[in-house]
Every structure is written in C-alpha cells, then in structure tokens.
C-alpha cells in the first residue's frame, strides 16, 4: 500500500496518554514520499472536527470539506504531530489536500516547531 504526502486517512490513535488526541481521527500525511515508501513510520498532523474548535489559533489550519474531500470541516492541529506505523492506516485515503493547503500546513508546523 502506498501512502502519500497530503493524503488524509482515518486512523485509530489509541492508546494515548494525557492530552493527546484519541480514537479514530483524520490524520494528514506530512512526511515526504521518499520516507513514506520505506518500511519505517509515517509522520502525520492530527485533525479534529471543525465544530470542536470555536476559534482559529495560529497553531491550527481549518480546512473545508470541499478542500479535503472529507464529509465535514476539519481543523488540523499542527502542534499535534505523530509518527505512526503504516499498519495503522486503512487501504485507501478518505481525502487529500491541495499543494496550497499542504504549504499552509507546512508553514504552521514550522511555526509550532520554531523553524
């Protein structure tokens, strides 16, 4: 199965600790495809329902359903980066973001990491 940067999958993030996002969540593949092809890990940005986030913060990117292909608006929490085993991912992605949205998310991740 090929996993590509910019694709969105619903992945079970359990088990978790503390304030980590839990349960079945949309995750946006953030790692580059050269890494995603290797039998290692896939780095993702975790998402949540847009209705759960009442205001926009500089650490989040709000993506409409039209921009993602998901059934609802999603907020990607760019401070919630996880590295996941590819075995967690289903066969097919649930959505995908454009290069423009991916660049916006990359900029916010850089902000969150102080890069």
From TrEMBL:
GO terms for molecular function: DNA binding; hydrolase activity; RNA endonuclease activity. Its EC number is 3.1.-.-. It is an enzyme of class 3 (hydrolase). GO terms for biological process: mRNA catabolic process; rRNA catabolic process. It comes from the Bacteria. Keywords: Endonuclease, Hydrolase, Nuclease. Signal peptide: none annotated. InterPro entries: PemK-like, Plasmid_toxin/cell-grow_inhib. Toxic component of a type II toxin-antitoxin (TA) system. Belongs to the PemK/MazF family. This is mRNA interferase. The lineage of its organism: Bacteria, Pseudomonadati, Planctomycetota, Candidatus Brocadiia, Candidatus Brocadiales.
């Amino acid at each position: 199965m090929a996993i590509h940067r910019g694709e969105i999958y619903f992945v079970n993030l359990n088990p978790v600790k503390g304030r980590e996002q839990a349960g079945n969540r949309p995750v946006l593949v953030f790692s580059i495809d050269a890494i995603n092809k290797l039998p290692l890990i896939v780095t993702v940005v975790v998402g949540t329902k847009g209705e759960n986030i009442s205001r926009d913060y500089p650490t989040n990117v709000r993506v409409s359903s039209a921009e993602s292909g998901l059934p609802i608006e999603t907020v990607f929490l760019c401070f919630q980066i996880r590295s996941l085993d590819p075995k967690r991912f289903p066969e097919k992605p649930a959505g995908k973001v454009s290069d423009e949205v991916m660049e916006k998310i990359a900029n916010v991740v850089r902000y969150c990491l102080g890069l």
